[in-house]
Amino acid sequence: MNIEIVIKNVVWMENRVNIIIAEGKIVDIVEKIDFNLDNKKIFDANGLILLPSLIDAHVHLREPGYEYKEDIASGLHAAAGGGFGIVMAMANTNPINDRASVTEFMLDKAKESWPNGPRLYPIGALTKGLAGKEMAPLAELAEAGCKAFSNDGLPVMNNEIFRRCVEYAWDLGLKVIDHCEDSFLAKDGAINEGKLSSFLGLKGIPSVAESLQVARDILLSAYLDIPIHLAHISCKESVELIYWAKQKGIPITAETCPHYLFLTEDACNEYNTLAKVNPPLRTKQDQEALLHALREGVIDILVTDHAPHADFEKEQAFADAPNGISGLDTALSLSLKLLKKGFSFKDIIGLWGKRPAEIFGLEFSELMSGQEANFILVDLKEEWLVNPNTLFSKGKNTPWLGHKLRGRVKFHFYKGQLIFGEKLWPGF
Ligand SMILES: NC(=O)N[C@@H](CC(=O)O)C(=O)O
Ligand SMILES: [Zn+2]
Prior knowledge:
Elements: E1 5-12, E2 15-22, E3 25-30, E4 41-44, E5 49-52, E6 54-59, H1 72-82, E7 84-89, H2 100-113, E8 119-125, H3 138-144, E9 148-150, H4 159-171, E10 175-178, H5 183-186, E11 191-192, H6 195-200, E12 204-205, H7 208-224, E13 228-230, H8 236-247, E14 252-256, H9 258-262, H10 284-296, E15 301-302, H11 311-314, H12 331-336, H13 345-360, E16 375-385, E17 404-414, E18 417-421
Parallel strand pairs: 1-4, 6-7, 7-8, 8-9, 9-10, 10-13, 11-12, 13-14, 14-15
Antiparallel strand pairs: 1-2, 2-3, 5-16, 16-17, 17-18
The site of N-carbamoyl-L-aspartate has 12 residues, from loops.
């Protein structure tokens, strides 16, 4: 193999190493370079941390239909800069991704705007128009390239329809990602139900609106013996149910998001619409239960639920502003905070890479010879101010706006190509 690129001085699991790349693959990761470097592209990473390119299994990229919030090109830019080589995009676009033509359109747009990656995998609508009444043409969507199905944003309340969808999806070898919410209990809610919702005079969303549906999914999954993946888990009761299910060997998997780990409902004080999200931010007890569950593997993965919205939408009154937090740009910096909470780099790679790949049957390149050269180089010490200029997403709606975060992706290689890097590395 003809060595093309040598990246010197990267830190991998506390060792200083050099990465050797050829034909888009990692040839070797070595401590010493014992070959001639003539005619190779050589870069000095100066001690940046090496991590594999990550996976975000739950984003909203808004195209087609809401390109003013985000489009596939800008969303993939935010993904590349956030450290994600693969994103799975939800179906609540306009038109909704409930037919092959929309899936194909999304895939074409991704290829056109970012031919070398990051890679977009669409998630097909579970029901037509996300209306929860009739199954979407799941086989057609799978064939077009959808990697999972979900009614994200709009729960399927009818258990018979939901059951048939889960069975049909599984026959196609794909999983259902369920947005667990009882739409009657959650109706018109804007914030977690509790003291703060009363204080602010806002209709609350009780945690039982989520946990009831988590219980339904667990019981269905057990009865059918078919896996179901639970989206953005936000509360303690859900964690307890998932723990019970896993003890019983029920094939449930679950995700949560950085905002549920690092914020509570208090972030909504003073009617801060940037912290308005569905499911809502909850209490300290919920936050602790989620962290514990993540550490113990009760919750399997982290996702951003990247939900970009325009400023004018978030500037409305709290009750009227849309739900959602823009998350691709900040996810890695926030996740690095977990290193101080008993998590290792290996855990972070599991939560944002290995595990989502296993759950959804996606490719994931480990950092070892023979694997695709998909990796990021991260400056752990860099402090950056979250502001509209430092976010690559069009969605500037993050509760961390104006805050400093630590840790930033400096370079992102995908299949041996530099897809993100400050002013592109000389020579690329
Ligand atoms: N998670 C969110 O807060 N928002 C999602 C949809 C949704 O799940 O309500 C969005 O598409 O904006
Ligand atoms: Zn979502």
